Records
---
Amino acid sequence: MLNYRHLYYFWMVAKEGGFSRAAERLDMAIQTISAQVRELEKNLGHQLLKPAGRGVALTDAGEAAFARAEEIFQIGHALPQEVRAAATKPVMRLAVGLPDGISKLAVHALLGPVLHTPDLRLTCHEGEIQELLGELAQHHLDLVLAGQGAPANPNLRLTSDRLVSSPVDWYGPAKWVRKADARDFPRCLERLPVLLPTGHSVLRQTLDRWFGEQGVHPNVVGEFEDSALMSVFAARGLGVFPLSRLGGGDIGLLGGLRPLARCDDVHEEIHAIRNRRGQHHPLVQAVLSHAKTSVFS
């Protein structure tokens, strides 16, 4: 276990440029500080300081240790103020889990009703659905927004509701969105560069079935686990991509994208999964209530 007092003495010596100045600053004996720093070097297994004129300089190992010590003691300096703030000012916390393939723009729209909550502390975790459900079951998350409902597993004690079933439209940068292509949709997807979510996404599975029904073989130039990253690459000119109409309301957040075609035959579902203890969380209830009254529910 790292001795943080030893680390603090080393940090002070490095900042002051020598043992004597650090001892004066700390009002301690030079021998005491020197012994503590040597103990730190012994525990870490590397020399951290070397003689330099009348003072000391950092070795390469010392540079690495000093950089971390700077972070640690800056955090320590801020800790009392943060604790006081937490004790005197109520914070509304909401922890949301998001599987990689879900539309992040749609999620932003769904969370819209609570984003202006006073003293909101919103935390969004991304990951595989099973990992997120485990976190939810252990009450580390308040809500998971996913493309599918909770599995039938009584041990997890989870409940879920389908919040929305939003049509999926197509967007792209101006250079790939032309009137002729819009009139030839979806056949134009065989000519245009197409970006899609990877196969682990529920939406990708739905799109693949739709491509088969339409007899379309899309010209796929990119596949993305993260839907937000796919949107960014599309905005930078890589290709056209599908986006739920719910998320399309925030398309202005990504400059340069234009609608290619509406597609009422494909829908992206978003389910709200929560544990039983978290069912009464006021922010979760606000998200659910708003989604159930939206035009896409």
---
Amino acid sequence: MTVKPKALRGAREGDPPAGRPPGILLLPALVGLAFLVLPLVGLLVRAPWSTLGTRLMQPQVLDALRLSLVTATLATGLCVLFGVPLAWTLARVRFPGVRLVRALVTVPLVLPPVVGGVALLLVLGRRGLVGGWLDSAFGITFPFTTAGVVLAETFVAMPFLVISVEGALRGADLRYEEAAATLGAGRWTVFRRVTLPLVAPGVAAGAVLCWARALGEFGATITFAGNFPGRTQTMPLAVYLALETDPQAAIVLSLVLLAVSVVVLAALRGRWMDASK
């Protein structure tokens, strides 16, 4: 029989070991915490609380907020539509070059967003590889339009959903799918009735992350779609513009984005805690 040390008998399974941390680690930890928290505290302290409601009701603020919510939601829908099948392919299909494809899917995570915007222009611009054909054949143009905002946000946000769903698929119990197939269910039925319910938490978490990332997208949007009020000026772009003309409005817009981030973290907290056990 294994006897646990007395100091650990009262600790729950998975809890970190009790004890006083060494000072050489505690000091830089506190500095790192202050570095991350103080800018947020400064934002809250300098916020114009007395005129917050009035500033939020300004037409340009409402237009940027409405456009951000609409485009982020549409981009999330595209991420789910294309990202879930892509994640399933990466998790369940073995083909030559799967590692390369997986690496390419995650490139937007580390690629500077401005570079992503330039890449989108080269492909979907009026003289791009695909955009030129779309413009000449169908009269469809994406740059500097609201649709361009959606595409830019989709490009930078989709990897979050693919990674989340692929991880959920790899952790799912295949016996349920095998049992359904044994009972005569077709592949589409198994995917729709068994696989999707199994990975639904992963899809939901990935969709929330996608939505938050799309809402905060700046670089690819301003490069590919521009900064036109009411058409392509989302919340981050409005913050950038307001810093030059009305810093108080920039703080108000930043507070809205901060509140969204907190809500997203709160929504995903339970999933993170479960994953860490």
---
Amino acid sequence: MRNLVRTLATGSAAVALTLVVAGCGESGSVGDAAGGDKDGKKDTGSGAISIATAQGEVKLEKPATKVVALEWTYTEELIALGVTPAGNADNKQYETWITAKGAKLPSGVTDVGNRNEPSLEKIRALKPDLIVIDNDRSKSNLKQLQDIAPVLSFTYTTQPQLDTMKKNFTELAKAVGKTNEAGEVIKRIDTAAADLKGRLEKAGKAGTTYTIGQGFTANGTASVRMLNNDAIAAQVLNLAGLKNGWTDKGDTWGMTTVGVEGLTAAPKGATFLYVAATNDNPFTGVFAKNPVWKNLDFVKNDRVNPLDPGTWLFGGPLSALHVLDETGKALKV
């Protein structure tokens, strides 16, 4: 079950999951090589660079300049730093599910295959000087990847997830000589959250109770992945003073997968925020005719608010900014 949830959480098309996933690329040129600052100057540093990873300390002689990312979060983070990855897993799916401002995949990035089973041959042919992976997903081929280049392996779900994302992002930035840029990007999250909080207060909507979920269809069954406060998306929204009404314990991602009946656990008065793909939206599709759905408090009181289908709820700093931006639009502030 954990493997299925993990696959769904990361957007695999293999289970017909049309789910979702952010915008700071403008702070630096997306085409810059790793190790250059916003003005195109090379930041070579001095001595070895030490990076903390889930597999222990990794040392690099100098900032990496040719990076392959095998997880969308880290591809997004490289782009946020102004670094164009040499290779990325699942280009098409990345472009579908991650549409946050500044997170667009630059042209010329080599698709190295599926994130679960990337092509080692394609990766090796790129001659990378760094590979970035998800620790859980890539344990099976870690040694083979390490034979190609140094590997940074990060765990996403360590609590609190928002702090973990920031930490991993900062470590990745060290590896590509972009520490200053990382700090600037991270500050934007707090700034955006404070701005949204202020707009909510001005509109008389401070402390609005919400629930947030991701709708999808798998194996012919429509489901919703509801997020509690262990999920990064909820932690980001809570920065803006919003209050998550979904309290189910969930899994390590902070997710509970339910059917339409499960949505009855949402508290009365809560606003329902959701993400669903345009061509697979249970909320406007199969649920819309269901009497249970029609009788839900947030449905009867017109508090159902779709977010952009490309709002990636399990991403990096650009996705965090996108969650805040889309929520502001949904709440009309």
---
Amino acid sequence: MQPEHRPADEPIGPVDASVVPRFAGIATFARLPRLDEVDHADIAVVGVPFDSGVSYRPGARFGPSHVREASRLLRPFNPAQRISPFAVQQVVDAGDIAVNPFRIEEAVEQIEAGARALAEWADRLVAIGGDHTIALPLLRAVADRHGPVAVLHFDAHLDTWDTYFGAPITHGTPFRRASEEGLIDLEASMHVGTRGPLYGVDDLTDDARLGFAIVTSEDLEEHGVAAAIERIRARIGDAPLYISIDIDVLDPAHAPGTGTPEAGGLTSRELLRIIRALSDRRIVGADVVEVAPAYDHAQLTGVAASHVAYELISAMAPRETKEESDDRS
């Protein structure tokens, strides 16, 4: 419950854990208010419980609820980014975009329509999947507002393949379709954390043609996180930025609860550090996908995903400029 003396223009934050225990009550993300409890939001966290586009292990349709449960332990001040992300912007939980689980094409249309409808109430979305298919309709909605965006894609896989079993829209194809549709900035997009076997060398040739540079998991191991951050920031530049994070970018030791795990991935600490380095970029939207709780252990994957979403929200928070700081001093 929120205090009655809260100023009208002050964001409504999470439920106070010193008043209501974290394990009590309905699990909204980070125990934030619902969208219907505010007039407008700066950021809406929305679940997209869809996994009909998977090619291996299903179960990511249960990801949004799993991540919300794991997010109960998040706290309002982020010391790594030196910001209270829920105090400087209104962040809400917008519930789920419910879609048809039997027809991928219809579901994709419903996700895009849902994202567009939410844009009337919230400036930016952080989506929790669901499988990576959902990135395509979310990018359609974002590009409609901002034009082609830089896509920073964290994943063990490229997700720029053409079809699976003749299906053009699956969790392995969203960024090929997005590139073909002109949704992404071909000079500013990048994969991070890719690794593991491919179908052939043509996968890499196609990927470069579609507009992506790559920082592989091996690059991070050989050159370090600081070098990766430098490459990422140089590639993005000042372009509007959409961040898409498949939780399988993390090593299975850190995120076992996912559909297509690959050995040799990033640590949670490495991923969070990279996200924090993007707080001065113009992030226009994000998603965290492929959390499949049936394969999780002790909420390892859910906790990792909830912290990833928290760092994304923190990176989106407004910062005081040097001029503003000087004016106050």
